[in-house]
Amino acid sequence: MNKKEFTITIAGGGSTWTPGLLKALCKRKGTFPLKRVVLFDNNPERQEVIGEFAKVLFKEEYPTVDFEYTTSPEVAFTGTDFVFCQIRTGGYKMRELDEKIPLSLGAIGQETCGPGGFAYGMRSIGDMIKLIEEVRKYAPEAWFLNYTNPAAIVADALKKAFPNDKKILNICDQPVNLLRSYGRLLGMDSSEFEPVYFGLNHFGWFTNIYDKNGVDLVPKLKDITLNSGFKPADAEQRDQSWLDTYAMVRDMLVDFPDYMPNTYLQYYYYPEYKKAKLDPEYTRANEVMNGREKRVFEECREIAARGSMGESNVVHNDAHGEMIVEVAESIAFNENRIYIVIVQNNGLISNLDDDVMVEVAANLGINGPRPFGVGKIGTFYKGLMEQQFAYERLTVEAWFEGSYAKALQALTLNRTIVDAKKARKILDALIEANKEYWPTLR
Ligand SMILES: NC(=O)c1ccc[n+]([C@@H]2O[C@H](COP(=O)([O-])OP(=O)(O)OC[C@H]3O[C@@H](n4cnc5c(N)ncnc54)[C@H](O)[C@@H]3O)[C@@H](O)[C@H]2O)c1
Ligand SMILES: O=P(O)(O)OC[C@H]1O[C@H](O[C@H]2[C@H](O)[C@@H](O)[C@@H](O)O[C@@H]2CO)[C@H](O)[C@@H](O)[C@@H]1O
Ligand SMILES: [Mn+2]
Q1: Catalytic annotation on 264?
Q2: CATH code of residue 150
Q3: How far is the CA of 157 from the centre of ligand 1 (A)?
Q4: CA angle 347, 114, 242 (to 5 degrees)
Q5: Which positions fall inside the Glycosyl hydrolase family 4 C-terminal domain (predicted)?
């Protein structure tokens, strides 16, 4: 029997990640057959460049796909089976401010952590809610796979706005990327690993990673990391700032040797040290605008003008695109593969509140995630997670209630700030910079 053919819509079609994602869709045509692919974006110029590239890609690699790009929600979402969501409200220009404003006031400047993540979250929530309302108007049954950041805050806000929607799944690629990195260090295929993981998004730990014979690989990974350091699976393609980030895994293991940490924990364990290492005049946003964004758009323009793919270096498969497509495939065909996803706790971590949005491993099938329980976690991890989740929840409440008081509480609780006077200064500066995007805080 022929497999069903699916329709995919990519919201944020003009994203720098879209070419890699489209390439992954082409690569998996044998296992995940597609009828139609649509790009949707609210920036027509940006999307046109990627859309014209996609026409060439599909003509060469997947000619049976009916492809189009649009700014119309009706065209984008009617009849779709999966929405892959990767929007960035405010673009890289606002990411740059998220990173630079806190740094100028003595705190970490980062896309998803600390005050930068707070500012980005306060911009993302409104657009995400509007987008899902549009999706549900035209595609009530579609799966909505979200990886728009900051995923922790977005996930909590979406749970509040759409409490009964069982087809919204929030997911991050960093755990998969770490698993691939472990695979490279061990000389093994990471797709065979069975991970045990707990935490919040960009704030978690691998406690065990079993191979197919049930052997836990974490002790060996710790040894290798402590003796020889740590680097990403795709180290050759990484900018220096990411290599520095991965190298910090060794420092984290020296101080807290229980588990393999998510790279983002470096900002919370070492806020002073990391702040001193970041250049307030040239942050990751500058590196991306001058690097990935430039390369992707230049190459897409060249391919569209030439009308053929040729030798394409930039538009390659990466962990990110492949993971999203494999996740959709696992849902579509009820394959129940294991992914690390963001879900409501509901007892998974037994000594944490039920309504915390945690990140844990789950089987992923046609009815969504069936997450694995983790049991009781240690006091250090519980303390860190509760403080961080309180910050995330207060951020969401600040947005819904337009509350300055809650915003100030959120930033004061964040480990990258701590001091309430510093939190107030940063908040006031971020309010000024985000006038166009945030609700009014009173
Ligand atoms: N969770 C993860 O693991 C993960 C990994 C990679 C990227 N991301 C996220 O994916 C998103 C895209 O990242 P990027 O670096 O490619 O950014 P980008 O700015 O290149 O792409 C975002 C696109 O979204 C569009 N957009 C913005 N608001 C929109 C709206 N309301 N409706 C429709 N389109 C809209 C923009 O015009 C832009 O083309 C970001 O949120 C990023 O944080 C998440
Ligand atoms: O600074 P950026 O824009 O390069 O990346 C920010 C994102 O970083 C993580 O994603 C990694 C991903 O894990 C890896 O597989 C590969 O595709 O690169 C990405 C970026 O380096 C993170 O998980 C995302 O949430 C961030 O948006
Ligand atoms: Mn992520």
Answers
A1: yes
A2: 3.40.50.720
A3: 17
A4: 100
A5: 197-416
Distance 149 CA to ligand 1 centre (A): 8
Consecutive 10-residue averages of pLDDT for the chain (442 residues): 88 97 96 98 98 98 98 98 98 98 98 98 98 98 98 98 98 97 97 97 98 98 98 93 97 98 98 97 98 96 96 71 96 98 98 98 98 98 98 99 99 98 98 98 98
Is 393 labelled a binding residue? no
Is 316 labeled as ligand-binding? Answer: no
Assess if residue 247 is contained within a domain: no
Q: Is 173 a catalytic residue?
A: yes
CA 50 to ligand 1: nearest atom: 39
DSSP state of 166: T
Strand order in the sheet with 6-11: 66-70, 34-40, 6-11, 82-85, 143-146, 168-171, 337-344, 357-365, 368-371
From the candidates 120, 264, 339, 391, give the one annotated as an active-site residue.
Answer: 264
95 to 72, 162, 199, 370, 405: CA distances (angstroms): 26, 27, 25, 34, 24
CA distance 50 to 71: 13
> So what's the pLDDT on residue 319?
84
How far apart, in whole angstroms, are the C-alpha atoms of residue 151 and residue 339? 16
Ligand 3 (single-atom ion) residues, CB below 5 Å: 172, 174
Catalytic residue among 173, 246, 268, 381: 173
Residue 81 lies in a domain: yes
Q: Number of structural domains, the chain?
A: 1
Q: What is the pLDDT of residue 2?
A: 66
- Virtual torsion, Cα 350, 354, 356, 357, nearest 10 deg: 90
Would 157 be classed as within a structural domain? yes
Give residue 89 CA to ligand 1 midpoint distance, Å.
Answer: 7
| pLDDT for position 178 | 97
Q: Classify the phi-psi angles of 375: left when phi > 0, otherwise alpha if psi is within -120 to 50, otherwise beta.
A: left
172 is in an annotated binding site: yes
Report the nearest-CA residue for atom 19 of ligand 2: 320
